[in-house]
């Protein structure tokens, strides 16, 4: 099953890179207004791929503690990372999360892409941050999962 998971993760990485290349190539004019958001989503997906690949390496090669109960996680995490990368763009664009204190007229989208990569790399902390923002801005309480996850072991 480890081989299947590694194949799936590599396939996810290739799909994310292909998505970035497709959007950057500009072959589809309908995607141009969504370019930054799509690349953020794909960047988050790459962050998730890296995190999962590191998890396989550590759990199989370093600690020799592979647990089949986590197999579903390896299939779902890249999807969650892709989603968090896209959500990071929405929250940055809306100004609910700020990368810098002043607006730079010549700034590029690199900061958006880097933040999306980190959001995909560290989904748990990103979701906690979104819940904090949601609570502060709209008064939406944190989810039960966020309230009760304090006692669980941290992921590798």
Can you give a write-up of this model?
It is a single chain. The protein is globular and about 50 Å long. Helix 3 packs across helix 5. It contains 6 helices and no strands. The protein has one domain. The model has no long low-confidence stretch (mean pLDDT 89). Helix content is 69%, strand content 0%. The protein is mainly alpha-helical and 156 residues long.
Short synopsis of the structure:
By secondary structure, the protein is mainly α. Helices cover 69% and strands 0% of the residues. The relative contact order is 0.14.
The portion of residues forming beta strands comes to: under 5%
Q: Major beta sheet, specifics?
A: none
Number of helices: 6
Structural class: mainly alpha
| Total count of domains | 1
Contiguous uncertain segments of 5+ residues: none
Helix content: 55-70%
- What overall form do the CA principal axes indicate? globular
The beta-strand count equals 0
Give the ordered list of helices and strands. HHHHHH
Write down the overall mean pLDDT.
Answer: 89
In whole angstroms, the N-to-C terminal distance is 19 Å
Which radius of gyration do the C-alpha atoms yield?
Answer: 17 Å
């Amino acid at each position: 099953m480890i081989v299947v998971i590694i194949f799936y993760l590599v396939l996810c990485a290739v799909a994310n890179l292909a998505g970035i290349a497709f959007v950057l190539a500009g072959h589809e004019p309908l995607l141009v207004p969504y370019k930054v958001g799509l690349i953020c989503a794909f960047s988050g997906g790459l962050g998730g791929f890296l995190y999962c690949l590191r998890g396989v390496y550590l759990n199989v090669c370093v600690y020799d503690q592979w647990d089949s109960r986590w197999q579903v996680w390896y299939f779902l995490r890249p999807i969650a990372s892709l989603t968090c990368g896209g959500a990071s763009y929405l929250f940055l664009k809306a100004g609910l999360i700020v990368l810098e204190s002043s607006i730079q007229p010549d700034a590029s989208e690199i900061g958006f892409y880097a933040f999306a990569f980190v959001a995909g790399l560290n989904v748990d902390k990103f979701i906690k941050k979104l819940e904090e923002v949601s609570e502060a801005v709209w008064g939406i309480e944190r989810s039960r999962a966020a309230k009760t996850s304090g006692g669980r072991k941290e992921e590798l």
